[in-house]
Amino acid sequence: MARTESNVVDISVGTLIVALIFTLAVRTLATANMTGVDPTVKTVTTVLVPVLGAIAIALAFLKHRGK
Predict the structure, then answer these.
(1) What is the rounded CA–CA span in Å between residue 65 and residue 15?
(2) How confident is the model at residue 2 (pLDDT cuts 50, 70, 90)?
(3) pLDDT of 66
(4) From start to end of the chain, where are the E strands?
(5) CA 49 to chain CA mean position, Å
(6) Is the CB of residue 50 less than 8 Å from the CB of residue 29?
(7) Distances (CA, A) of 12 to 16, 18, 35
(8) What is the pTM of this model?
(9) Which residues contact 34 (CB under 8 A, 6 or more apart)?
(10) pLDDT in tens, 13-67
């Protein structure tokens, strides 16, 4: 298998794994029982963490693309 084909396979498998794990994590955070938790913690957990996760994933792919 050529180097380009190997890179395509690596990126495809990586994207699939990240999509599955990220979707599960966001769903778990969104449906978590947060009774009695401070509103600031609720906001950080349900809004900020998924947004920062998406940014981190985008930066990882952009960094990999620049090689």
Answers:
(1) 13
(2) low
(3) 59
(4) none
(5) 9
(6) yes
(7) 6, 10, 39
(8) 0.54
(9) 41, 42, 45
(10) 888 888 888 888 878 877 888 889 899 988 888 888 888 888 888 887 777 665 5
Cα 38 to Cα 43: distance, rounded to the nearest angstrom: 9
Structure-token match 């963490």, residue found: 49
DSSP-derived letter for residue 36 is T
- The CA-based dihedral angle spanning residues 9, 11, 14, 18, taken in that order and rounded to the nearest 10 degrees: -140
Token look-up 């981190």 returns 56
How remote is the C-alpha of 3 from its chain's centroid? 26
Cβ within 8 Å of residue 64, ≥6 positions away: 11
Are 53 and 22 spatial neighbours (Cβ–Cβ below 8 Å)?
A: yes
